[in-house]
Amino acid sequence: MTTLIFCAFSNRRDAVELAHEVLRDLAQRGREGKICLLDDAEEPSFGADTLVVSLGGDGTFLKAARLAHAAGARILAVNLGRLGFLLNVPSTQIVTSIEDALTSTHVSDRLALAVTVKGVEHEVFALNEVVVERAQAGHIVRVKTFVNDEEYLSYAADGVMVATPTGSTGYNFSAGGPVVEPALHVMVLTPIAPHFTIDRSIVVDHSATIQLIVVDKPALLVADGHTIAALNAGDGVTVRKSAAPVRVVATQSFDVASRLRQSLREGHA
Amino acid sequence: MTTLIFCAFSNRRDAVELAHEVLRDLAQRGREGKICLLDDAEEPSFGADTLVVSLGGDGTFLKAARLAHAAGARILAVNLGRLGFLLNVPSTQIVTSIEDALTSTHVSDRLALAVTVKGVEHEVFALNEVVVERAQAGHIVRVKTFVNDEEYLSYAADGVMVATPTGSTGYNFSAGGPVVEPALHVMVLTPIAPHFTIDRSIVVDHSATIQLIVVDKPALLVADGHTIAALNAGDGVTVRKSAAPVRVVATQSFDVASRLRQSLREGHA
Amino acid sequence: MTTLIFCAFSNRRDAVELAHEVLRDLAQRGREGKICLLDDAEEPSFGADTLVVSLGGDGTFLKAARLAHAAGARILAVNLGRLGFLLNVPSTQIVTSIEDALTSTHVSDRLALAVTVKGVEHEVFALNEVVVERAQAGHIVRVKTFVNDEEYLSYAADGVMVATPTGSTGYNFSAGGPVVEPALHVMVLTPIAPHFTIDRSIVVDHSATIQLIVVDKPALLVADGHTIAALNAGDGVTVRKSAAPVRVVATQSFDVASRLRQSLREGHA
Amino acid sequence: MTTLIFCAFSNRRDAVELAHEVLRDLAQRGREGKICLLDDAEEPSFGADTLVVSLGGDGTFLKAARLAHAAGARILAVNLGRLGFLLNVPSTQIVTSIEDALTSTHVSDRLALAVTVKGVEHEVFALNEVVVERAQAGHIVRVKTFVNDEEYLSYAADGVMVATPTGSTGYNFSAGGPVVEPALHVMVLTPIAPHFTIDRSIVVDHSATIQLIVVDKPALLVADGHTIAALNAGDGVTVRKSAAPVRVVATQSFDVASRLRQSLREGHA
């Protein structure tokens, strides 16, 4: 039977209160669930039959999605904040969406990235993007790129990223990259402020192995906005599609086009 | 048995002479073939078992590919000119490439576009891109875009294009669009010099139906660089993947990355 | 004494009616004026002491500004339409603005371009931009650029423009060029969809002589949205600052920043 | 009488040796000079009559230019490395260039920036650009911009910079900004990877006061590649033209156009 777990950051009071409220509501319908605080020391244990309910903004969703992904669990993306490209459930529709999710198996599979650093054991997960960027303000980093062992362009830049379709409207968009439909099986290679080099993105198949090699200067490996590792000249980062996708509950539409229009209008406050 | 047809424009003397030379060479090996001048009034008749050999530059290839596509024939892309992204066979390797093509069936399927204009019977073919653009110098055209009947962005621009992966390094690249690996099953929607609108491309699945609706001002429909139709306010253009791909002989590599590097270096003469 | 002339296109009924209304209003205050229909066969005769009142949108203003410039007259830019970057007088404030303009001499001098084509006698005027662009849909044009006889970049592009600060928020902006404060003494060289070349604009001093040489293919010379001349391979266009500026009445602010924000929000309908 | 001081970083052996060599050469001609190691603890003392000779790459020049600027001294920009946009004297022409500089007063005045941070006493100098950027990898910073107290655009971005014409081919170029002729009296406001906002640069007069206000998140103030200060939400940075320009010896041409072409070709290694 499906276990219901609400994920929120403890400093988002509104999210935590909403979780309690929804739990009471569900209790009256004979359903149980738990709350998982994402900043808790203790790692929660999810199973493949867990329905993870993310309560917050994009940051909450990205963290909850990482946990859900590790367990093979589905995730319901509730939007408690400003417009989020990743979040398709308005807070007013949590309960019905949960009911729908418990009876339906309609998910939108999102490509995630599995990143390995030469010499480092564990694999890094990213749902939006992985960036190799300069470690020091005011400097640039030189990065060579390879797709399936074929050398592509070299960049002297603030950084170079590999973005997923999900992440295409995020940092990739800021850096000039294309919007990619969430369901497409592709990855996008996008440089950030490259010097004297063409700044176009390169769209490759999800089966590709992309390598980013740091040529000089210390660099950082950043995944979904979190710094994962320090890199030195010569270090290489390998980016592949994660074996399993992130399984986002899709009983509601994602409305990419209307979100895009709204974001563009609101971008110029 | 495979029929061999060499395609060239009659004003490319070098191409026509080369065709004759190769034909003589092949005759000694017991193979026959014909020459088809692409600017001839008479339409050539190809069959699915024809091997079309395009002799010239990108323009020759695009025209020959249209004919090959209509017949389901394979096409061998010989490069007789400057660096062409579409052309993988150097002129020095024509004969061996033909021999290889006759014994191998290794083709690279290239997504082509099937374009229909409201009220016009026949379908337009495009291998690189389809553009709805302003009919008059100095003016702009307003175009609404739809993907699978969902409204996307509206543009006041010089034009709006749908490009294939094959065309991604052409006009799409000039307009700021991403480079897309030739084999990917996607289409790219890219505005050309849009006014006060974000200029990012949108990458959609090859199964999508894209509509470009002219909101005001006369416009032109241009496919692979040829003006196909005049459009008026209210006219709609529907772009879909063509049912069949263009079948390019792939016994040689296309080297997208090295062509890209070379083109970028040579772009700044 | 200052002569008052209202300029409008005859198909803008609202503008023509407004002109009559304002004339009646002014008559009661003992002031006289005339109406000039910009699409009349007869060229109006303005003097340096004329106050030209442009009634319409950007197109009306550009045409009226050309006439005012030729005569050294001042121009009052009334906005009868959608947001226009060039138009600083709301229609509700015409009469007071005219009164202010008659007693004040506060003008904002706008750099205009004087364009000559090799072999053509007369000089072309442009307040927004001059473009050398491809004559044929689906083709590109190769253009070499020179600044003060020093060779700059060569472009294979849809076109290459020289924009004024006034025109910087127009076509130049669409093509990726920078916004330039209206009063600056600079010109901006901006390529339109250049292929495999960097697409940055180049900002040069107003004293510079810019040459655009057509390398191949027929091209068009377009000034402020009007096609002025057909160009052939080898033809050169010389762009300089016009000896006299356009003298726009500046009793009201131009609010570049707020217009920019508004345009950006409204650009994504 | 003009004092001659050679500036180099001590770890650039070639530069230090060259300085000694040139000094011996000059000694035979009866001229004296000194060597100043830029990484020495002791600050050198220059006067307005010093001729500073920068021996190294762009980094050496930027540091030496700051010292020369503080003293009102002229600077000779010798290029000991890869192509530098700022460096107009090839190493083979040092001695003749010094002789020319001692007898000529032909300088190219370069606009420099004077930057003040609210609450911080001393003024920061920048010859290339000043950047307000995110303090933390993976985050963005929100920055409001003002020109002469008029609110301009707000950005959610990696950073926002104000660049000089000298710096326009540096970080400004990478971020998409225009190339500006070195002698122009303008400053360029350029956002770095702004999210859902137009990314065009804004070119303003050298007399303008530009303010960059940090709206949220910790940020850094970076001048010419060096981190100068940590900024917090609410902190404001004021950027103005420095009262005095940097006085670069201009007995040789700067060849902006040919350097641009060369850099573009070499950018795609």
Give an overview in words:
The structure is a homotetramer of 269-residue chains. Chain A is 20% helix and 39% strand. Chain A is an alpha+beta fold and 269 residues long. Chain A has two domains: 3-110 and 245-266, Rossmann fold, CATH 3.40.50.10330; 113-241, Tumour Suppressor Smad4. In chain A, strands 1, 2, 3, 4, 5, 6 and 20 form a seven-stranded mixed sheet that branches. A six-stranded antiparallel sheet of chain A has the order 8-7-19-16-10-11, with no helix packed on it. A six-stranded antiparallel sheet of chain A has the order 15-14-12-9-17-18, with no helix packed on it. The first copy, chain A, starts with a strand and ends with a helix. The model of chain A has no long low-confidence stretch (mean pLDDT 92). Chain A is built from five helices and 20 strands. In chain A, strand 17 (219-223) and strand 18 form a beta hairpin. The radius of gyration of chain A is 19 Å and the shape is elongated. Chains in contact: A-B, A-C, A-D, B-C, B-D, C-D. Strand 13 (179-180) of chain C pairs parallel with strand 15 of chain D, so a sheet runs across the interface.
In short:
The structure is a homotetramer of 269-residue chains. Chain A is built from five helices and 20 strands.
User: What's the overall geometry of chain A?
Assistant: elongated
Radius of gyration of chain A: 19 Å
Q: Mean pLDDT across all residues of chain A, rounded?
A: 92
CATH class of the largest domain in chain A: Alpha Beta
Strand fraction of chain A: 35-45%
End-to-end separation of chain A: 47 Å
The CATH topology of the largest domain in chain A, please?
A: Rossmann fold
CATH architectural designation of the largest domain in chain A: 3-Layer(aba) Sandwich
- Which parts of chain A are unreliable, with pLDDT below 50 for 5 consecutive residues or more? none
Structural class label of chain A = alpha+beta
Give the total of beta strands of chain A.
20
Count of domains of chain A: 2
Oligomeric grouping of the chains: homotetramer
Number of helices of chain A: 5
